[in-house]
Design brief:
This protein has 87 residues and is mainly alpha-helical. The protein has a domain of 41 residues. The protein is built from 4 helices and 2 strands. It has a two-stranded antiparallel sheet with strand order 1-2. The chain is elongated and about 75 Å long. The chain starts with 11 loop residues before the first helix and ends with a strand. The mean pLDDT is 77.
Amino acid sequence: MTLKPHILLPGFGLSLGFTLAYLCRIVLIPFSGSFLKTATTALGELFRTVTAPRVSGLLPADLRRLIPLMIPRKSQRSKTDTLEWLF
């Protein structure tokens, strides 16, 4: 006679399966679609879209101040062509 393993959470596998299925349907598939749409856009068109007044009006003032700091620039101290990130 073999002992049946004690299941701590009955139905956990089924509920986890439903949760992951709905997560894919509602969250992951639309996100992947938006990333694919962005990947097929030209760089100039993407820059025009991001910097449009309608979009920039949605950004908080703090975030508007941080965006130029995230863009890499050539170092003033070094004569090499390496890029340094602004902090």
